[in-house]
Amino acid sequence: MSTEGNSIQRFFSDSEGKKWLLNFVLIALPIILFFVSFMIGRYPLSPFEVVTTIIAKFIPSIHVSATAATIVWDIRLPRIMAAVLVGAALAVAGAAFQGTFKNPLVSPDILGVSSGAGFGAAIAILLLGIPLITQISAFAWGLIAVSITYFVARSIRNSEILVMVLSGMAIASFFTALISLCKYTADPYSKLPQIVYWLMGSLASVTNAQVLMVSIPIIVGISILLILRWRLNVLAMGDEESKSLGVETNKLRFIIIVCCTLITAAAVSISGIIGWVGLIIPHISRMLVGPDHKRLLPATICLGATFLLLMDNISRTVLSIEVPIGILTAIIGAPFFLYLLRRGYNQWT
Amino acid sequence: MICILGSNGCGKTTLMKCMNRLHELKDGAVYINGENIKTMDQRTVARNIGYIPQGHVSTFAFSVFDVVLMGRTPHLDYLDSPGKEDKLITEEALKKFGIYHLKNKPYTSLSGGEQQLVFFARVIAQQPQILLLDEPTSHLDFGNQLKTLNIISKLSQEGIAIVMTSHYPDHAFISANKVALMKDQGFLGIDTPNNIITTENMERVYGIHVKIMEISPNRKICVPIEIIK
C-alpha cells in the first residue's frame, strides 16, 4: 500500500518518453476541454459552429448567426475563461503555500484571504449591491485580512511558520464571524440570498470585463511564482536549511505570500468562495510529477484549470437549475481525493 | 578540523548557528578571511560556509538529485534556476559519495545512513571553505558513525576547514586535530585531543568518572565508568 502512490509517480518518471507524454497530456487536457466547453450547454453548438464563430470575429466576411456569436463571446467565453483562471489560480497558490509553509495540509485561504474576501463581498452587498463594487471590496478585504495576519504574526514572533498559520486561523474565524454578522443583519428577502449565493461560489454571472480585470493580478502573481520555482524548492526543506543554502527566507516568504494573496483574492473576487481546489489539485499534481516546483507549478496550473472547468460545465448542464460550483467541487472533489489517497498514500504527505 | 565537546544545553548548537548567521549575534562577531559575516548577504555566507543541521524533518519527497542540486543555490542569481554546470557538479558530488545510483529515488525513502550521505553530497556541491556539522553521527548506527568520521577526515584533508559538535570524546580522538571543550555557555579550553580530553576535564564537563586508555600507539579511547556522587 505504502509504495503504490509512488508507483504512479515512478511510472511517469522512469523514462524521458513517459515524462514528455505526461507533460503533453497535462497541457492538452485544459486546451481540449476549453474548446469542448464552448459546445455544451442549454443551447448546444456543433464544433463547426464554434470554430466558425471564433474565426468570424477576426474575418468579418464569414457569416454566422447572431445567437451563436452572443453565446460564444458573451455568455460562454467569460465563464470558461473565469473557470480556467480561477482554477489555475487557486491550485497554484495552494501548491506555493504548501511549499512555503512546509505543510501539505495548507490551502490558499490559510492566512484568511477567503474569509476576508467573503466579508468584503457581504458588506458591499449589504450596503450597495453593485456587482463591480462587490468584486473590488472582496478583493481589497482579502488583501487586508492577509496583511493583518502577516503583521500580527511578525509582531508576535519573527514570522515563524506555526505562528503565521495560527494567526491566519484566528483572523479567518474573526472575519467569518463578521460575515455571519452581515448575514444576520441582512434583509432576508433581498440581500441575504445574494450574500449566501456569493459565498457558495459561482461563475454564472461573470462578465468579460471582470475576467479581464482579475486576469492581470493572477497572471502577474503566477509569473513571479514560476520565476521563483527553484527557491520554492529550497524553502520547502525548512527555514534553517534554506538559510544555510543562502536563501533569505523571510524576504522570499513575504514575496510568495504577496503573490499568492493577490492571485487568490483576485480569483475569489469573481468566483466567490470555491473551496477544495487549492488543496486537492496540488496533491494530485504531486502524485503525478513529484514535488519539484519546476514541474509541480505548471502541472497545478493545467490540472486546476481542467478541474474547475469540468466542474463548471457540470454545474451548468447536469441539472435544470444551476448548482453552485463551490458545492460541486467539494461533493465531487472530496470523494475523488479520498479515492486517490486510498490508492496511493505515500511519503509526499 | 575542530571538534566541539560539551554537555547537553551548553550551547554547542547555538554557537554553530551563530557561526552560520542563522542566529544574529548580540555581541561579538564572526570573521571569514578577515571579513565580518554581518556585512555579507546570506548568499555570500552560504558560499563560504556549508552546514549540516542535526535533525532533518522531511515533508516533501524530493529526489536525491534535487536535494543535492539545492547545494548550488548560493551560486545562483536570485531569479535563476540551476543550469547545466550545476547539474554536472551535482553528479560529481553524488558519485563522490557513492550514491549516484540513488539519484532518482525520493530521499525520504532512504535509510538514515544514506540520507546523511545525501546531505554530505549537497554540502559538497555547495563548495564551501568551511563546513559546520552539528552532531553528524547522532542518528547513525555503530558502523555508519565510523564511516561518517572517515568521510569527515577525508574532506578535511582536501582542505576544507571543519567544525563539528559531538557527544563522543572517542569521535574527537578518531578525527579531530583540535578539541574545544564547552561548559556553561563558555569554553574550558581548546587544545589537541590528547591534551584536553583528560579524566579531569571529562569529570568537569560531564560529571562522570571516565577512564582514558591507549589501545594502540596513536589511538586513545574514553570509557565512562560511574556517576560522580
Query: What series of H and E elements makes up the topology of chain A?
Result: HHHHHHHHHHHHHHH
Lateral strand order in the biggest sheet of chain B = 4-5-6-1-7-8
The CA-CA distance between the termini of chain B, in Å, is 35 Å
Number of strands of chain B: 10
Largest interface (CB within 8 Å) is between:
A-B, 33 and 40 residues
Number of domains of chain A: 1
Q: How much helical structure, as a percent, in the residues of chain B?
A: 25-40%
Quaternary state reads: heterodimer
Please state roughly what percent of the residues of chain B sit in beta strands, choosing from under 5%, 5-15%, 15-25%, 25-35%, 35-45% or over 45%: 15-25%
What value does the average pLDDT of chain B take?
89
The profile of the biggest β sheet of chain A is: none
Q: Assess the beta-strand content of chain A as a share of residues.
A: under 5%
